[in-house]
Specification:
three-stranded mixed beta sheet, 7% strand, CBS-domain, 456 residues, 22 helices, homodimer, MgtE N-terminal fold, Tetracycline Repressor, domain 2
Chain lengths: 456, 456
Amino acid sequence: MYENYDFKALLELAESRQFRQLKQELKTMNEVDIASFLEELAPELMLVVFRLLPKELAAEVFAYLEDSDDQQRLINALSDRELREVLDALYVDDTVDIIEDMPANVVSRILRNTDPATRSQINTLLRYPKDSAGAIMTTEFVSLRPEDTVAQAFHRIRREGVDKETVYTCYVIRRRELVGVVTVRRMLLAQEDTPIQDIMETRLLSVHTLEDREVVAQMFARYDLTALPVVDGDGRLVGIVTVDDAMDVLEEEITEDFERMAAIVPVDKPYLKTGVWETVRSRIPWLLLLMLSATFTGIILTGFESALAACVVLTAFIPMLTGTGGNSGSQSSVAVIRALSLGEVGLSDTLAVVWKEARVAVLCGLCLGGANFVKMLLVDRLLMGNPEVTVAVALVVCVALALTVVCAKVVGCLLPIGAHRLGIDPAVMASPFITTVVDAISLLIYFATATQVLGI
Amino acid sequence: MYENYDFKALLELAESRQFRQLKQELKTMNEVDIASFLEELAPELMLVVFRLLPKELAAEVFAYLEDSDDQQRLINALSDRELREVLDALYVDDTVDIIEDMPANVVSRILRNTDPATRSQINTLLRYPKDSAGAIMTTEFVSLRPEDTVAQAFHRIRREGVDKETVYTCYVIRRRELVGVVTVRRMLLAQEDTPIQDIMETRLLSVHTLEDREVVAQMFARYDLTALPVVDGDGRLVGIVTVDDAMDVLEEEITEDFERMAAIVPVDKPYLKTGVWETVRSRIPWLLLLMLSATFTGIILTGFESALAACVVLTAFIPMLTGTGGNSGSQSSVAVIRALSLGEVGLSDTLAVVWKEARVAVLCGLCLGGANFVKMLLVDRLLMGNPEVTVAVALVVCVALALTVVCAKVVGCLLPIGAHRLGIDPAVMASPFITTVVDAISLLIYFATATQVLGI
């Protein structure tokens, strides 16, 4: 946790109702930390403490509350006048984020308490699909004309800037079309009478309103952006995405990737705020599916029951074999999943990826097979004195191991690429799924090798 | 891939040596994309194309080359004058990043070609540990005095701003100590004769030079920052970290987490740029370690050889049991690992986490055990007509399954927290490790249950 404050002391102040002193403390704190602190309080106390905050700060704190239930409770408790003050101070995109999590009656109360201009902006933003650039952009930006001078531009920023989410990049519009961007830095270094078109940057990066928000977030990381213009089909500027929202998207998407890779259906809430039932619901589907697909592995084992009975020692190496296969496969799949999501690898690289993984797999397979051969003869046979571990048995296990590693790594890199090609999130092709597939493959290889070498 | 350009057409222009036209095309491109394009070219051609770029752009492109071998090749090919021009245009922190990956002779050539002031800044930055705030900060920022007026501040920004990485947040210093920050936005909205101390923000966020760079990156995400001051032990401002570098750190750290979670020793290079041997070296250690620790599972299986021989059908359900246990465990461990790294969960939450996971585990265990009981009797016994699958056997499997899920989830959440407490990266406690531990646990539970219920 990054709080630089003594939360316990603050809690005591609140609970012993020493509000005057608490108010002084809160004034020195960052809005994000105040929001974290409020979320630790009981509902009634939260409202009292929230009312201690100066207007501007209150709105910022409100936007940073992580739990939409807390936001809803506050909205319900605030008077219309108080609510209006909070809403006035919020940026439009933050208001939209809040609205998206609220029930209809709260939404209509929010809309009733915003001015008509803001209301129409909110309605526009709400119309974009949830995962699109349109849904995370703001409509509050400074726009200039190409023929404006630097002095006029500064005049405009001074007049309008208070309400704009960023003023450092201004957007130059000709006939509603985006023709350039100019930074305040560039304007500060130019003469007052320079026309904007002489200093604006025309090498433009922009995205379409319907672009996937994950792609938008990746663009911020790739191009080191602080803001990115969003245009409609006709190249008209309709909004901008700012870096703070892009970072939030990046964190959310990465959490989703982590969850999918661990066979969890993504949940939208922080870990400790997710209820037990909700957590169970997010974990059961994949567990159930993977459990049932292990039936195939069971069938394979049953099919070779007689072979196993003839050479019982083979059973002892099954977990090692399937485990190593699963680990090898997930290494490859995770490496490819990450490379895909960083844009380091595309569909055109499929052959290069498979070729690389195949070579890595052969080397890993030889190395692991060799190590295991030595280990079986030294440890299992000599040290632990197990006479059943013959050279032939060790050979079976190690050849099967090497072959399994090769198959696992190739399957491990192919599955995410295949998913990507089909438009499925490659992250679902991580360890749990791979492990189940590789379990079956490795057993088939194992028994085929055993039948060949031992003649059982 | 996010390139908006036709790389193939550009490649053809370069290879057919139509440099005049290529130069025109390059001028319209983003520096990041030009760098990607250069890295596709053969070494000699890369140098020729690099020389086509205007000076300022060339330096930016140079900083964005991902492969340090390419950078080294370019540095070696450039004349001293050309190198000086590139270095002059680079920000100090970018130069330091480059230097960190170069051999000694190249480093000394770089240092010889920078002016003394920059050289001393570089040397200062190089002295910080690789993963610290000091190593990712820049020493180029605008500093003001509290008594400066807004007009004086703007004058200073105009004079010094060109060389500073960001001018939008200025740092207010009194007797070398950081006392406030003021944004250009705030200055633009204030009167020209207002003293800076009247409008500066004194609620300060800062980090110590030795703070872990991952914590720094997380602070940018949490507080929506664009820059963060770095101070020494005496509260003196020594540098700032900017949001673009913080985002790079975030991406690198997340890639490391992904790799560790897949039992890969983190590599610093993009997927396709990592050689086969290097990849093998990053994957073999954990595979080998996990393979050898599967010896325990083997020992357990050997110990129960007679029990298995008495009731061979039990073998068929081992992969399902260990697989489901492993998946349940990795769900919990990954959820906790992510919550830890987002700062949603701290050491003080250990009890809350275990209590939550325990309840989730019991519900999941009952649900999976029940589903499997029905499945075994319906599918395995009735549908596939396997007479060995008796109610008693189904009971053994399902009770063992439920117990395994509970143990797996509790172990799964405890291991990352334990690692965190010991200062080890919790990410190594993900699926591969958990799976190996849970394999052993689930077999012990399985055979204990079987011995009790079936009396074998």
